[in-house]
Amino acid sequence: MTTRIERHHYDVVVIGAGGAGLRAAIEARLAGKRTAIISKSLFGKAHTVMAEGGAAAAMGNVNSRDNWKVHFGDTMRGGKFLNNFRMAELHAKEAPERIWELETYGALFDRTKDGKISQRNFGGHEYPRLAHVGDRTGLELIRTLQQKIVSLQQEDKRKHGDYEAKIKVFSETTITELLLDGDRVAGAFGYVRESGEFLLFETPAVVLATGGVGKSYKVTSNSWEYTGDGHALALRAGATLINMEFLQFHPTGMVWPPSVKGILVTESVRGDGGVLKNSDGKRFMFDYVPDVFRHQYADTEEEADRWYTDPDNNRRPPELLPRDEVARAINSEVKAGRGTPAGGVFLDIASRLTPAEIQRKLPSMYHQFKELADVDITKVPMEVGPTCHYVMGGVEVDPDTTAAHGRVEGLFAAGEVSGGMHGSNRLGGNSLSDLLVFGKRAGEHAAAYTDSLPKRPKPAAADVEAAVSAALAPLSRENGENPYTLQQDLQAVMGDLVGIIRREAELTDALKRLQELKRRVANVSAVGGRKYNPGWHLALDLRNMLVVSECTAMAALEREESRGGHTREDFPKMSPEWRQVNLVCALDGDDVVLERKPVPKMRSELITLFKRTELSKYLTDDELAEFDALSGEAK
Amino acid sequence: MGSTRKFRVWRGDENGGDLQDFQVEVNEGEVVLDVIHRLQATQTPDLACRWNCKAGKCGSCSMEINGMPKLGCMTRMSTFTEDETVTITPLRTFPVIRDLVTDVSYNYEKARETPAFAPPAGVAPGDYRMQQVDVERSQEFRKCIECFLCQNTCHVVRDHEENKPEFSGPRYFIRAAELDMHPLDAKTDRKEYAQASMGMGYCNITKCCTEVCPEHIKITDNAIIPMKERVIDRKFDPLVWLGRKILRRDQLNGQGQGLDAPSGKPAGVTGHAKGVGPTSARLPEPPDLQEDGKLALTEITFDRPAAPSPFGEDVSFPMRGTSYVHPDRQRETSPEDEGTQAH
After folding, report:
1. Which cellular components does GO assign to this protein (chain B) (predicted)?
2. Can you give the pTM of this predicted structure?
3. Interface predicted TM-score of the whole assembly (ipTM), two decimals
4. Could you identify which of A119, A382, A453, B172 might form a hypothetical disulfide with A128, taking C-beta atoms 3.0 to 4.6 angstroms apart as the criterion?
5. Are residue B76 and residue B129 in the same domain, yes or no?
6. Does B115 touch chain A (CB under 8 A)?
């Protein structure tokens, strides 16, 4: 083998430079570890910038009745009680600290009158809870973390004479394979986009923070990087994925013009008074309030409208139902022929606020619609529809340490790539806080893990050679298929057959087609050289997209109920029995194998935070009897 | 709905390249980046171009469209006439890697040289108190998506590789301003530092950066001018500027001091100017031709071998019509200038 490979030695390698990755890297560096950050794009361009609404944390700045217990309850409720309760608990408890910490890094959130961090209302959150900066909170978060890393590098320069002595960002670098020594993580192999040169990181600990899988879908708010790399790397390294059937379709993506189809319209448009209307001009959400939410949501327009100014004495407008409910409602309206010409519904803020208020409260929405679509949202309603936005499923992790389950040791995961925290449906605003809370934990525990090792694991030369030839294969193959065509075909299968509403026959068909695609992807070829060649990069990403899509389709076929981000037309009801089941995917050779595992049981002091009437909609009779016994004891 | 349009896209690498003609389908409502994606999917799978969010939020797809620095995702095809040829070239101020992708590491180096936020001593996390009106000034600059269009368009470094070591550029002036205006930042010498170590004195407020900013940040008016105000009388002097141009760096003192100050090594950050002295020290020379007899990229979009003076060739001194006036000369200005004064 004559290929040149650049070798690097690090204590912790963080794959992904979004919020979770950067927060993990900061923590690993603060623990004194030599840390590498692998960024698929330029530093600071991560998908986190797309998050608009805010970061949920029960600081109680706007409504002092808010606390971590209420936040925990909202998160479990939003996830339909399938969440890993411990993750939801840690998240609710630690989110405020993580937000306050950002201020010491230089973040500038919008303020309340008394100078604290302002908090806004959001779907599924009982109190105003989202720390925000206009509607560009994600950008603020990523920039703050990026600048914190720079400040740590400046410290290292003063101390060691080199900015990169302790923490280095490898931008435009993609990891294609994790390397093991036995069952221990020993390294990561990848390429630099710019030059096509190969890199080998020898490291005992890897933190996956690669985000989601949206690029397997036709209509998505996700960027090209979201190809499920971390999910696939984890699977191939022997870790497991859970809840892969749960995908969040954000209810309000732009549907016009076609070039920006999928791009998000933030939920704050609804939080600030925007309403959804069908082509008959009817505010249709009142028809779609499910029984479990009936007592929390207004049933008349008058009450809903009063809520914006007097939330204590009125119930919330149904436009603020959890995302899955709103997405399904829009889908039904469009299917019933009451959609807009472009296949969405109208989101109207123009008739609800003055132009000045809209421009002040929603500046980047105003800007986005004006520049991208030439639509003035202060004058006309927007056209919106569901877009693939977030995957709730992901790497199965230990809640406290974020260490991946399965055979592998030394692998950690945080942010969207990890699973469990959000159950079957994520509340808006919970992802920014999720990535801070678990990003920190991942960095901390990855660092601690390296200290616990008796000796450094070493990657095997044969594995490195195999990784090199796998990476070069698409370039050397002649007359193979065009990667762009293959991606379009994959997106068609996932969008049409494993989309927002699912049926058994279609899912079976999808699995067959995915097998067919697997054979075709094995024969993909890329023209051109190794230097910044997007065709080659896509050819390598396809393998990841496929295996993750297979997990999603298999789990979607297995779960015979409808819950959160998984809707089966043939099983439209939520089933208490299925609530007890996590679907866990692992890789056996090249094949995905699926296993049922029990959902961890909530501790008694947590479950008794809920009312029996609410739990009765989710739990089995046995579980309810247990609950009754518990609350009996409490009295 | 669709129509076929003419595109000219620069293709090549650091060894040079040329504009290639394409005929490509364009549909209603599309932007330039859509067309590039269609080219990749149908005609040139290896056409290199950066992009991420495709919504004007990440600042990755910066390029020059018909010579104007713009974001590909924010340039609607409806802004061109049907028979217009759309010419796309990479950012000119940064070295080409391949096709439309340039080496923007200059910006990241400058980011590292800009002193970070200094947290106030003795204020615990959670105890930060600031008023909305006070954070808003800095928030304007934190809207920056780091597309580097302002860096690209700034004539101090556009075609002046030799200024790069000393000049941080508009992106980092607004970073300095943001921290200077941060209600709780503990560092008190942001303005002086910007002047002494970031090369802010090179800026002659022509507002080109403000014009190209896709986030509409008022870079010149709201960041650079307020930053210049306090230190201006000490630092802004054309003779100092001239001295800096004609003397070797080791003959100058007081340059590049400060903890994280640029090293000032003449090699240039990107390595492009390796071994090349300042332009003023060399005889005029014709543009370099490559082996194939073609001009390199940096020469094809401009009709002269080097760019005009950093002040612009159409500017006469003293400058009029800018919103900045030297405090000492304030009383001497003629009545017709009064409407544009900063004070």
Report:
1. plasma membrane
2. 0.84
3. 0.87
4. A119
5. no
6. yes
